[in-house]
Design brief:
- By secondary structure, this protein is mainly α.
- The chain contains ten helices and four strands.
- α7 (181-193) runs antiparallel to α8, α7 crosses α9 and α8 packs across α9 (227-247).
- The radius of gyration is 41 Å and the shape is elongated.
- It starts with a strand and ends in a 41-residue tail after the last helix.
Length: 323
């Protein structure tokens, strides 16, 4: 990583391109330029056959300068630092402050590139790139530019490093209801990419996120716990709560609500929490009278009411006469 400071005093973390990728990009650009130069030369030879040798040499030299020098300068200016070779390798030329290059930057790079790349077959450019801490050649030094990588490898999506084992269950009583979704997303993105960040930048980011999380929960981080480990432990606690909320009750029944299991300690509360109350348990159970059984397709016979049976208006005693 290379730290660039913009005009607004903002530090940018960029990945400078190294010699192998830059050499491959330059080689692809030279192949394209050489093919274009051959095509232009054939066209000029066919159109200037009636001229003398001096005129033909002047035209050929002008074509060489325009195609081999002016072509890359025009392409880098119009594409803001991305030639064909650089686009194929995922590279870009930027200023020292991280901004896009302009014509003067491309002109200086192209002019010095004729000496250190074309005339010396790239030897000077390779030596300068190996000596420089950011992999810059002489054209980049004089133009104030830098070649950076646009394609940065990312970690597998969805993978978060687990917290230390000694933090397991330590934040089970933490109130996470006031933490917004944006802060959770920022914490997850940091934990997924903290191995790719610069150590100083990653430490400062972890401290800032831990302070924001502690302010939302109302409980500061325990003393001696690293900010990154604190964030990982809290995120794991939130995931555990979401998993318990989603899967603890099992599949829903026909009515859409799963029936709780009475007396399951640790998951659904204390035993008997979902059982009948004491008032309901002390009430006597009423035994319903057995229904009258009638044979199918048979007439219903109404028997006279036996003597001694109380009328319907009399209070019931719970006794049912035998059928």
């Amino acid at each position: 990583m290379s730290e660039l400071v913009t005009g607004e005093a903002v530090a940018l973390e960029l990945r400078p391109a190294r010699l192998p990728s830059r050499a491959l990009a330059v080689l692809l650009d030279l192949v394209v330029a050489a093919v274009a130069y051959v095509v232009v030369t054939i066209a000029l030879v066919a159109s200037t056959a009636s001229l003398d040798e001096a005129a033909q040499f002047a035209v050929s030299l002008a074509a060489f300068v325009l195609v081999m020098v002016g072509g890359p300068i025009a392409v880098e200016t119009l594409s803001h630092g991305r030639s064909l070779g650089k686009m194929a390798c995922g590279l870009r030329v930027v200023r020292d402050d991280g901004g896009p290059i302009r014509f003067r930057h491309a002109l200086v790079r192209g002019g010095i590139g004729v000496i250190e790349i074309l005339l010396t077959f790239g030897v000077v450019a390779c030596v300068a790139s190996l000596v420089s801490a950011r992999g810059r050649r002489l054209g980049d030094v004089f133009a104030g530019t830098l070649v950076v990588r646009e394609r940065v490898p990312v970690s597998p999506s969805g993978f978060l490093p687990p917290p230390p084992p000694w933090l397991a269950g330590r934040f089970s009583g933490l109130d996470l209801s006031a933490v917004p979704d944006g802060l959770w997303l920022a914490i997850r993105q940091y934990l997924a990419r903290m191995q790719q960040l610069d150590p100083q930048v990653g430490s400062a980011m972890a401290e800032r996120l831990a302070a924001d999380l502690a302010a939302r929960t109302g409980t500061p981080a325990p003393y001696g716990v690293p900010p990154a480990a604190y964030l990982a432990a809290v995120v794991q606690e939130r995931q555990a709560r979401e998993a318990r909320r989603a899967f603890a009750n099992g599949p829903a029944g026909a009515g859409g609500v799963a029936a709780p299991v009475v007396g399951a300690p640790g998951t659904y509360g204390a035993p008997g929490a979902y059982g009948p109350s004491s008032a309901q348990a002390s009430a006597p159970a009423q035994v319903p009278s057995p229904p009258a059984v009638t044979a199918p397709h048979s007439p219903v016979v109404h028997e006279p009411e036996p003597r001694g049976v109380p009328s319907p208006e009399a209070p019931r005693t719970g006794f049912a006469p035998p059928a």
